C-alpha cells in the first residue's frame, strides 16, 4: 500500500521579507516564526497540517508543499 507524505519548503531565494511575515500570521498551528534576516522558519514540521494557507497567501510564492510518495514494503 502506498502512502503520501509532504514537506513544507521555503525557497529563501524567492522569499522577500514581508513587513508583517504574512505566513507566520496566518499559520493556524503557529509553526512559522521569524528567523534570520526577517525570513520565516518552520519550527515544528511534524505539527504542520499542510492546510496551504501560508502557501496561498505568500506574496512571493516562496512556500511550496512537496508531495512524496512512500511505498510500504513488507
What share of the residues lie within helices? Answer: 10-25%
N- and C-termini, Cα separation: 10 Å
- Strand count, sense and closure of the main sheet? 2 strands, antiparallel
Weakly predicted, low-confidence segments = none
Give the topology string: H per helix, E per strand. Answer: EHEEHE
Q: Structural class given helices, strands, pairing?
A: alpha+beta
Identify the strand order in the major beta sheet: 1-4
Q: Give me the number of helical elements.
A: 2
The rough form would be described as: globular
TL;DR of this structure?
This protein is α+β, with helices and mostly antiparallel strands and 74 residues long. It has helices spanning 22-26, 53-57, and strands spanning 2-10, 32-34, 40-42, 63-71.
Features:
74 residues, alpha+beta, two-stranded antiparallel sheet, two-stranded antiparallel ribbon, 2 helices, globular
Give a description of the structure.
This protein is an alpha+beta fold and 74 residues long. The chain has 2 helices and 4 strands; from the N terminus they run E-H-E-E-H-E. The chain has helices at 22-26, 53-57, and strands at residues 2-10, 32-34, 40-42, 63-71. Strands 1-4 form a two-stranded antiparallel sheet. Strands 2-3 form a two-stranded antiparallel sheet. Strand 2 and strand 3 (40-42) form a beta hairpin. The chain is globular.
Topology:
Blueprint: E1 2-10, H1 22-26, E2 32-34, E3 40-42, H2 53-57, E4 63-71
Amino acid at each position: 500500500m502506498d502512502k503520501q507524505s509532504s514537506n513544507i519548503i521555503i525557497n529563501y531565494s524567492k522569499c522577500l521579507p514581508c513587513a508583517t511575515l504574512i505566513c507566520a500570521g496566518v499559520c493556524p498551528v503557529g509553526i512559522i516564526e521569524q528567523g534570520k534576516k526577517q525570513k520565516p522558519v518552520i519550527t515544528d514540521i511534524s505539527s504542520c497540517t499542510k492546510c496551504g494557507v501560508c502557501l496561498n497567501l505568500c506574496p512571493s510564492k516562496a512556500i511550496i508543499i512537496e508531495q512524496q510518495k512512500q511505498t510500504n514494503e513488507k
